[in-house]
Amino acid sequence: MIRDHFRVLVMDLAAGKGKVVRVDGRDEVAGGSGLGALLFAKYGRIDKPWDDPEQPVIFTIGPLTGYFPLMSKTVAAFKSPYHDQYAESHAGGRSALALKFADLDALVLTGKAPRPSALVVGSRHLELKEVHYLWGKDIQESGKLLRRMFKGSGHRSILRIGPAGENKSAMAGINVDTYRHFGRLGGGAALGAKNIKAVVIIGDGSFPLMEGKDYPRLFQAVYEKLTATDMMQKYHNLGTPVNVAVLNKLKALPWRNLQATSDENAHGISGERFAETALLRNAACAGCPVGCIHIGFSRERFQTDHRFFYRQVSYDHEPIFAAGSMLGVTDCFAVLDILDVVEQMGLDVMSAGVALAWATEALEKGVITEKETLLPLRFGDHNTYEKAVQHLAYGVNDFYRLLAQGTLKAAAHYGGADFACVLGQEMAGYATGEVFFASQALGFRHSHLDAGGYAYDQKHDDQDVGKAVEFLVTDEASRAFLTSMVACLFARGVYTDELLAECLQVVGYGALAGSIDAVSRRIQQLRWQTRLATGFDPAAVSIPKRFTEVVTWKGKVDGEFLAVLKNEYARRIAEMARREDHP
Ligand code: SF4
Q: 510 phi and psi, to 5 degrees?
């Protein structure tokens, strides 16, 4: 039987005690993103800083998790160390299904564990275990030990942080199982501040499926749509790295700290090159038939007997951009080597790559010296970047500690803000033009996935501000509903509102099925209200000069159009948050 409320485990880490509470609001906020904002309103402290022990770290899933494919994400909601405002980050792996099998719609962590600990949660299990011996260990080592310590079925999911999270870097992510991440906006530091090295979710329960023929019939239809469309082709075969060559050709791939948007050596890091030479296998999140996760290998020689050992490293368009083109690295194995170190340190790859690209240009221009970087950072020199990634994670000196809090924070101290590639946070791998730049700079998560601005740029060369902003606002609302369902956004072409309504209806959420539009806008508004209440001022957002120097397929970015677009989008966001009526 489905519930009309949320079942939430609230864990007080200081007391080592948890209780399951009932939270109403299913028909108002659905789950996922909407539930994150609802729970932050209940347990969050807008008046206190991100690392106050009272501040919650929240994990939520959606109403279709476990019932339909690709409803595979977990939403993490927390106050971000990056900007001290409300934030969301999304990850897949086995986390969502494990929470479902643990009979939970959400997990809320409050307080601070007295010592480094691992939280173990199951449907009949709750334990806060001291693990001081894991503190300081990298992601691979801690993963190995945690898997041994907490044996579980296929429904076990392990969330953990690396040295970056322990050192409270605002670029620290939370690694999920082996190849997925809550990457952006410092979720790893939010857990580190609570002395939580790992959260182990043991999906040791079960739940009944719907009786009758309607559910299996619809499931089959959804499954066929997901596997028969070109989505499978796009995401399974070359995967998102197919974008590298496409964007490079379109003059939309950021190179060497966005000093260029295409390069003749892009073929060395194209999706095709990865697939031909470095791809080992594909993997998938639990419950996903697509399997978009591409795993390549990184090779290292033992000092003692010169034998090689191999490490499996996942790659996608964004990591290739961040550790490849943005750093001027044009060999796919060199990119995988950098990604391997980023992974072990528990850093968000986009933030780290873009920050180091800025540091490289700042060093070239004499804004900083090797006294700060400790290394002769040079575009294309992957060995030096591997060391710099470790410096960033461990915060080895004042410079790296400040850079780990955000590129603009370092630029404010040392200079070089004009060429900091920051759009709300370190940019994503699309230099497509004005609409994307405004979209990421102002977007709720400062993510390329908040709205399809990058796709809009590729299809429109007009300068219609009203049309572009309307697109961003409408697209964001529909994505906010999808992320409240916790759908993988790769499935957004399949999970239309009509199909989602059918899925919700068949599972038993009839009221939600009949009010998708209103609920989407309510969630969108609630998220913005929460964000603005914690200090976000859309009107104060500025876009660094570098973004107006970019040349795309449409020609040079029009700084005036970008400014008008940004101001209008900021006005609409403030308006959404102000509105008193809940649609
Ligand atoms: S398409 Fe990829 S990211 Fe999405 S659920 Fe499947 S494996 Fe996970």
A: -60, -40
